[in-house]
Design brief:
Blueprint: H1 3-8, H2 15-22, H3 29-44, E1 47-57, H4 86-98, E2 103-108, H5 115-129, E3 135-138, H6 144-153, E4 157-159, H7 178-190, E5 194-196, E6 199-201, H8 207-220, E7 224-229, H9 248-261, E8 266-269, H10 273-276, H11 281-285, E9 290-294, H12 304-313, E10 317-318
Parallel strand pairs: 1-2, 1-9, 1-10, 2-3, 3-4, 4-5, 6-7, 7-8, 8-9
This protein binds iron/sulfur cluster.
């Protein structure tokens, strides 16, 4: 075995073995959770990292992602603005630091930006980095020059999700490709950014698609791997999606598989946590080590105090990173 393989220490699950994990009978789920949980404790202890997200730019996106309220296909009634009020952005940043949360995530709708817009974002990043906050931007495709501008401003991490498998991708988006996303991530990794990349479950994809997406993420080895469970939004093409497949058991199997395939990543249960894991916090946190405390782009989330209580009640501590 070579050194790189040793360092990776990922169980070398084959594609068929990964599919079999999603097919685990519900009566064998506890054993699967135990298997995933041992990796969670090995690499993450009993800490839970918490994030909040500020929507710095909302709506009017040129892209047509079928799940997204901000897309050009969406008629969902959402706030639309080019820049969130700066006071709100900095107040959210203070909130992250006051509560000693792990990271401040900043979402921007859109796929392409001008250099002038990136410089405006860089200015805001420099200001927040004065507080020492660990910052992540969820942002579309950057040119290498733009990515370097953000790196120089102090941005730590970039979120760029794969969302689904390569072969399913055309069903959810026609304005850019899966491979453009993969190339963008590799460019960002080459510049030294930490990467947050994951997907959305429940858009009509097969179990094979879920596995293929996670295998691609195993290649990428992101620092964080967020899994979103679809919350259909009225006015989007997936507004009436059939989500009957998203039982708590199935969602748990997906998260277990993510932990088994990319064990060292922060495995995050992002959108859908309050719906699909209601009253299952303890079990959930034995597999994932990362959650959002409030707000998933335009969807409301559980409040911070409730979230902290759910974590401590379940016997975990929350991570203090950004103080
Ligand atoms: S997910 Fe991002 S790129 Fe796709 S429509 Fe929404 S804001 Fe635009």
């Amino acid at each position: 075995m070579n050194t790189a393989a040793c360092e990776k220490e990922a169980p070398s699950l084959s594609r068929d073995e990964a599919i079999a994990i999603l097919d685990t009978p519900d009566e064998e789920l506890e054993a699967l959770i135990d298997r995933a949980s041992s990796l969670r404790y090995k690499y993450k202890g009993n800490r839970v990292s918490i994030h909040i997200l500020t929507n710095a730019r909302s709506g009017n996106c040129s892209q047509d992602c079928a799940y997204c309220a901000q897309s050009c296909r969406s008629t969902a009634d959402i706030d639309k603005y080019k820049w969130v009020d700066e006071d709100k952005l900095y107040q959210d940043n203070d909130f992250v630091n006051d509560y000693h949360l792990s990271r401040h995530c900043i979402g921007l709708s859109g796929m392409k930006f001008t250099d002038k817009e990136i410089e405006e974002l860089a200015r805001r990043i420099r200001k927040m980095k004065e507080q020492g906050t660990h910052l992540c931007c969820s942002i579309g495709f950057l040119t290498e020059h733009q990515a370097k501008m953000l790196k120089e401003a102090g941005l730590d991490r970039i979120n760029h999700n794969l969302n689904s498998s390569r072969s399913f991708y055309h069903n959810i988006c026609s304005t850019h490709t899966f491979d453009q996303r993969v190339r963008n991530i590799h460019m960002l990794q080459g510049l030294g950014f930490e990467i947050c990349s994951g997907g959305i479950i429940g858009m009509g994809e097969s179990k094979e698609d879920v596995v293929d997406m996670l295998l691609e993420l195993r290649e990428i080895q992101p620092e964080a791997l967020p899994i979103n469970f679809l919350l259909p939004i009225k006015g989007t093409p997936l507004g009436n999606a059939d989500i009957s497949q998203l039982t708590t058991e199935y969602c748990m199997k997906v998260l277990c598989l993510a932990r088994l395939l990319v064990p060292k990543a922060d495995i995050r249960c992002a959108a859908g946590r309050e719906v699909y894991f209601k009253d299952e916090e303890k079990k959930l946190l034995s597999v994932v080590d990362s959650i959002f405390a409030s707000g998933y782009l335009t969807e409301g989330g559980q409040g911070i105090e409730d979230t902290l209580k759910a974590i401590t009640d379940a016997g975990f501590t929350y991570e203090i990173e950004s103080a």
